Amino acid sequence: MNISEILFYFLSAMALGSAIMVVVSKNAVHSVLWLIITFFAISGHYILMNAQFLGIVNLIVYAGAIMVLFLFVIMLMNLNADTEPKKNRWLKMAGIVAGGCLLLVLVAALKNAEIRGQQAQFNEGNIGLIQNLGEVLFTEYVVPFEISSILFLSAMVGAVVIGKRGD
Amino acid sequence: MMHLLAMDWGFVVEKMILIISIVSISLVIAMYETYAERKVAAIIQDRRGPNRAGPFGLFQPLADGLKLFMKEEIIPNTSNKMLFVLGPCLAMLTAMMTSAVIPWGDRIHFTLFGQDRYVSLQIADINIGILYIFGVVSMGVYGIMIGGWASNNKFSLLAAMRGASQVISYELPMGLSLIALLMMTGSLKMSVIMGQQLDGWYNVLYQPLGFFIFLVCAFAECNRTPFDLPEAENELNFGYHQEYSSMKLGFYLFAEYINMFISSAVMVTLFWGGYDIPFVNDTELVKNIGYNWMALLQGGTMFIKVALFIFLFMWVRWTIPRFRYDQLMNLGWKGLIPLALLNMVITAAVVLWLKK
How far apart are CA B281 and CA A25, in angstroms? Predict the structure, then answer.
């Protein structure tokens, strides 16, 4: 076991454990906080694979911005453990069946996939570094990149229009 | 196990010593910032300020710390206990974390067991340095939000919401003003940005508008007057730390002073040449006096520059009255963001024109 492997197992355990806690927690605010810890673990995985840019942007965008908005909404709604409605037993069963089906499909799809033969590259590979990523994004993938930016712009305009309607 | 033992333990020890010393220096500086703040306030208001504990009142921060420790620790009955304790810890943690990527000096040199060792005075020289700072700053909201919510108090919650939306709003112009800087430097590494300024042409000369926007945003991110709305005492009693007492309150107040110190250091590094000694050719000087004396001089220069910025923070606090909340939002979204965008476009055009 070298230090990368130890880190890998530690981060994986952290990601899985906190992801389970997101689902299990009764309090919605606790769920959000566990989700933030999950994002930290995933960012750790990115950094372990030398994808520094992805790792830090995952933190800034997901843990830093989107989760703050989640917290905003949940805190203002005042959801407490005791106000949580009792769920129907049949609904729970349906949830288990649906989740199991998804698991089945994922396992079936990944069982024979090419990716199984590939080892993750620890601490090597330069594609995740910001310079290489920028070059690839602005040369090879410039059209999809610009299209996605237009998508964001339209989403922003839409949000402003919806926000203005109240006046 | 052998792989674990085979790593460079000297490196680990060096980094540990560096981390511990930078953290303790930040804490001591934050302590004396509280003293300086009262003295500056006193001078501006034509008073004497603290002068009882020790010569010139120099032991005042120690007395204050002791007082905070001695106070009764109160955890409200209806609060969420775990998160209530977590809040101030997070505020403190995120305040300290940014110091990891700031270069505090060039390097020191010593001989150990007949081997030359050069130790860089920067904890981590990662090539996403500026993004790392942004990541930590965006985490800073959680200390306020969790503390405010866990108190289970209307005023705390309102203040936490204000604080969070203020920090998020001012992160945007801050990022945009830095993009213009990054177009010029072409690197996200703090050491590279720092190294480009060693010739005395500081980035602020090329990016005055960018620096101004960054400065205003830094005030807002630190929740300092004129943007200290999260703790506006005449509207919200005492803000998000209303329910806190004893050292937990001390942590929140302390985190603000550490934030001030660290954001001054970031501003100095990015815009004012960091540890570069002004009007002196550093590469010539280092040949004459050696690395260690140079590191000392550079560190001193850095701290003088940082101290000037901290003074600016205090000067503004005791001069300018607080904004109203809608004015704050208007300034952020309708004033600073368009200004930062303009700055970005102009910088991009000039960079492109010069390259042709």
Answer: 60
Q: Express each pLDDT in B142-162 by its tens digit.
A: 888 888 888 888 888 888 888
Q: Where are the domains of chain B?
A: 7-355
Q: With an 8 Å Cβ cutoff, is B1 touching chain A?
A: yes
Q: What is the mean pLDDT of residues B201-223?
A: 88
Q: How far, CA to CA in Å, does B51 sit from each of B58, B64, B65, B315?
A: 8, 13, 16, 20
Following DSSP, what letter does each residue of B47-113 receive, concatenated?
A: -----SSSGGGTTHHHHHHHHHHHS-----TTS-HHHHHHHHHHHHHHHHHGGGG---SSEEEEEET
Q: Say yes or no for a CB contact (<8 Å) between A68 and B141.
A: yes
Give CATH for domain A3-128: 1.20.120.1200
- Whether residue B3 is predicted with pLDDT greater than 60 in this model: the reply is no
Give the integer Cα–Cα distance in Å for B338 and B172: 11
CB contact under 8 A, A52 and B128: yes
Q: Give yes or no for B126 touching A (CB within 8 A).
A: yes
CA-based nearest distance B319→chain A, Å? 33
For residue B142, which residues of chain A lie inside 8 Å, CB to CB?
36, 68, 71
Are B189 and A52 in contact by the 8 Å Cβ rule? The answer is: no
Which of B130, B134, B152, B187 best tests the A interface by mutation, with the highest count of A CBs <10 A?
B134
Q: Is A129 in Cβ contact with B149 (below 8 Å)?
A: no
* Cβ <8 Å between B138 and A63: yes
Yes or no: say if B104 and B275 are a contact pair by the CB < 8 Å rule: yes
B33 and B310 Cβ atoms separated by less than 8 Å:
yes
Interhelix angle B282-317/B246-271, nearest 10 degrees? 130
- Cα–Cα distance for residue pair B236/A13, rounded to 1 Å: 42
Q: Which pairing describes strands B115-120 and B107-112: parallel, antiparallel, or unpaired?
A: antiparallel
Instruction: Give, as one character, the DSSP assignment of residue B242.
Output: T
Q: At what angle do helices B246-271 and B9-44 cross, to 10 degrees?
A: 100
Q: What is the mean pLDDT of residues B197-203?
A: 82
Which value does ipTM take for this structure? 0.82
CB B313: neighbour CB atoms within 10 A?
A: 23
SS (H, E, C) B107-151: EEEEEECCEEEEEECCCCCCCCHHHHHHHHHHHHHHHHHHHHHHC
- Whole-number Å distance between alpha carbons of B18 and B12: 10
The amino acid sitting at A53 is F
For B55-81, letters b (16+ CB in 10 Å) and e give: eebeebbeebeeebeeeeeeebeebbe
Residue B120 CB partners (closer than 8 Å, separation 6+): B103, B106, B107
Query: Quick check: A76 and B127 CB within 8 A?
Result: no
